[in-house]
Amino acid sequence: MNNTRLPAEWEKQHAILLTWPHEHGAWGKDYHDSIEPVFIEITRAVVATQTIIIGAFDATHQNHIHTVLTASGIQLAEVKTYIVPSDDVWARDHGPITVYQGDKSVLCDFQFTGWGEKYAYQLDDQIPSKLVASGLLSNYGYQAIPFILEGGAIDCDGQGTLLTTEQCLRTQARHADLTREDIEASLATYLGIKRVLWLSDGQLAGDDTDGHVDTLARFFDANTIAYASTDDENDPHFASLKAMERTLQSFKNNVGEPYQLVKLPLPSAIYDASGKRLPATYANFLFCDQQVLVPIYQDPKDEQILATFKAHFPDRKIVGIDCCHAIEQYGSLHCLTMQIPAFSQR
User: Fold this and answer.
1) Is position 346 within any domain?
2) Per-residue pLDDT of the chain (346 residues; tens, 9 = 90+)
3) What distance in Å separates the CA atoms of residue 182 and residue 232, rounded to the nearest whole number?
């Protein structure tokens, strides 16, 4: 009998994992002025209620992180750092996915291939094993898994139901020889998944992950799914997001009832310097202990979105994190982070 369970993100957490930006990554030497302030604000929010674990490129970079956090008025008591060379900052996809196996917590090290070998990934693929070697999670078990999976590609209700997209998990660059049934069997084996809800529509312009579900649709709770939407018929996303909406309306929860659905309207279009539309979405939010961190984009819809989250999570603090600079490299708040669930599920 498989006693593995993938917890929901809203369950009790031990820590949030970050891989701090550095001059060797996508933002280059300008990272101090662009992406680093986003990381500082994520850290400020997280340490209010739990630990944050930060990967630093080398000892000099580690000292820099301590210095900028202290200068920003952040107490370091709940900040843990370790040294791990990295290609990029997207901890959601190169970080471990943690499951419960009976009374054990296990860090699952799935293969990471740079979203189908689009980018350098060899350093990032080693991050889970380096994290384990750091001793910062010494109570947790570890399992290397011969299956390609990125954390942003899945969302789970903690009760065995997983939400994902055909366009990501079934892409040729990841699982060319696997059927949908093969993939479901692997998800059942490694994550304890009992059923998979597949979306086959919806992908945001500028998205380079092949349609990660954490940009499109997420569980608010076991009976509620929030999803990216637009009512603007002139928006290039209109048809695909409406098709996704119809699929979501057809899904049933674990007791056979339709899900409550919550629209998260897309922010106004954001473009890079070359005129390329960037994949900004409010679905890329993050559960923390006692909080929900929500990406915002200096957009008129920000306040509406924050009000939506406050209405649905009255017992959690809702914190907006400006992700305008994060989206420059095609990811947002959830993409930058990975939760480490509490050691015990009891």
Assistant:
1) no
2) 579 999 999 999 999 999 999 999 999 999 999 999 999 999 999 999 999 999 999 999 999 999 999 999 999 999 999 999 999 999 999 999 999 998 899 999 999 999 999 999 999 999 999 999 999 999 999 999 999 999 999 999 999 999 999 999 998 889 988 999 999 999 999 999 999 999 999 889 999 999 999 999 999 999 999 999 999 999 999 999 999 999 999 999 999 999 999 999 999 999 999 999 999 999 999 999 999 999 999 999 999 999 999 999 999 999 999 999 999 999 999 999 999 999 987 6
3) 38
Residues 6 or more apart in contact with residue 338 via CB below 8 angstroms: 16, 17, 91, 92, 95, 96, 97, 151
Q: What is the largest CA-CA distance in the chain?
A: 54
Gap between the Cα atoms of 287 and 9, Å rounded: 6
Residue 307 in any domain: the answer is: yes
- 335 classed as catalytic: yes
Number of domains in the chain: 1
Domain that holds residue 192: 4-341
Q: Indicate which CATH number applies to the domain containing 286.
A: 3.75.10.10
DSSP class of 25: S
Catalytic one among 108, 168, 288, 335? 335
Q: Residue 257 domain-assigned?
A: yes
Whether the predicted model's global pTM rises above the 0.90 cut: yes
SS3 336: helix
Q: How far is CA 181 from CA 129, 185, 187, 188, in A?
A: 29, 6, 10, 10
Note whether residue 291 is domain-resident. Answer: yes
Beta bridge partners of 97: 108
Label the pairing between strands 195-199 and 161-165.
parallel
Contact 164, 70 (CB under 8 A): no
